[in-house]
UniProtKB/TrEMBL annotation:
It comes from Danionella cerebrum. One of its GO terms (molecular function) is cysteine-type endopeptidase activity. This is Caspase family p20 domain-containing protein. Residues 14-129 form the Caspase family p20 domain. Pfam families: Peptidase_C14.
Length: 129
């Protein structure tokens, strides 16, 4: 059978990626209490996502600007089919806090993923506050 479709080269090294951002410890002056169990949760998530074929990056106890920057950088790298973003920190409706107590709007994070690199790719976010 003849097909007129041209075959596209497949990048076999490209993988699905996940970024896990967890804040367990906050600066003392923030008044935000420690979130015990976060490290264990992130390790479990890393193990599960790795078994599913994801390349996983974990960022622990980073400031608000670093959270935004981590997701911005992740959004600029293409993936095979899917990106998973996980954020675990204190927060309120529509925001999460960095270790410095500053807020990051979730809408800002999500908007990073509307660029060319993530076009037509699945993007899944889990937020635990």
């Amino acid at each position: 059978m003849y097909s007129s479709r041209k075959s596209c080269p497949v990048n076999k090294t490209m993988r699905n990626r996940a970024l896990i951002v967890c804040v367990e410890n906050f600066y003392p002056e923030t008044g935000l209490c420690r979130r015990s169990g976060v490290k264990r949760d992130s390790q479990r998530l890393h193990r599960i996502l790795s078994k599913l074929g994801f390349t996983v990056d974990i960022r622990m106890d980073i400031e608000a600007a670093e959270i935004h920057q981590a997701f911005k950088e992740a959004s600029e790298q293409s993936v095979k089919e899917c990106f998973v973003g996980i954020i675990s920190s204190h927060g309120e409706e529509g925001i999460v806090f960095g270790s410095d107590g500053s807020a990051v709007r979730l809408a800002q994070i999500y908007s990073c993923f509307s660029g060319k690199a993530m076009e037509d790719k699945s993007k899944v976010f889990f937020v635990q506050v």
